[in-house]
Amino acid sequence: MTLSITLIIIIITVLVSIAAFTNDKVYNDFIFDPPAVTYNKQWYRFLTCGLIHADYGHLFFNMYAFYMFGDNVEENFILLFEQKGKLFYLLLYVTSLFACLIPTYLKHKTDNYYRSLGASGAVSAVIFAYIMLNPLQKIGLIFLPPQWGLPAFVFGFLYIVISSYLDKRGGGNINHSAHIFGGLYGIAFVIATSYLFSDYPVLEAFIEKVRNFTNRF
């Protein structure tokens, strides 16, 4: 049996995160430390910070959300891009780890007191790729049945608005900026790759589905 890219990423992330919980060297070497990038050119931290998490709750929530949306996006990528589907899906996840942290890095590149970790930005990219491909599917809160949820495009809009508000308010230990830019990157990635490598007009189809939905009211 061939494992999905989603499941392979989850297994690797869980193993590395658990190792970091008990090994300070792994934790300190992998965490996103902007000054270490600025002064020591440790660019790899953009990627490795997505393999570690603050605690088991943080790890579970991210991997649960990734699993819930990732398999669907991976299957859709295979339909869209055929033999290149798995490669593009892997590229979406890996490159979003870098892209979602660029604004964070620019803001904190010399801040010795700032650190960030977790796969939330990449998970957001996958969720928003799902929203672009399935705008009318219901998305609900964790553990609640889908029928109690909102259409995916509405959920995505509220997600960006709320994350933007929380990011501007500041405080807390959550990098809302990574959530926002991860989501926006996921949208851009799906539109660009579909335009270049597929005959399926993702953006046009998204707009048409949303228009037909809103015309019911």
Task: Explain this structure.
- The structure is a single chain.
- With 217 residues, the chain is mostly helical.
- It has eleven helices and two strands, in the order H-H-H-H-H-H-H-H-E-E-H-H-H.
- The protein has a two-stranded antiparallel sheet with strand order 1-2.
- The longest helix has 26 residues, at 56-81.
- It is globular and about 55 Å long.
- The mean pLDDT is 93.
Stretches where pLDDT falls below 50 for ≥5 residues?
A: none
Question: What is the residue-mean pLDDT, rounded to a whole number?
Answer: 93
Widest sheet: strand ordering = 1-2
What does the radius of gyration come to?
A: 18 Å
Tally the beta strands.
Answer: 2
Distance between the ends? 46 Å
- The SSE order reads HHHHHHHHEEHHH
Q: Give the strand content.
A: under 5%
Q: Outline, from the CA principal axes?
A: globular
Derived from helix and strand composition plus strand pairing, the structural class reads mainly alpha
The level of helicity is 55-70%
The main β sheet shows up as: 2 strands, antiparallel
Tally of DSSP helical segments? 11
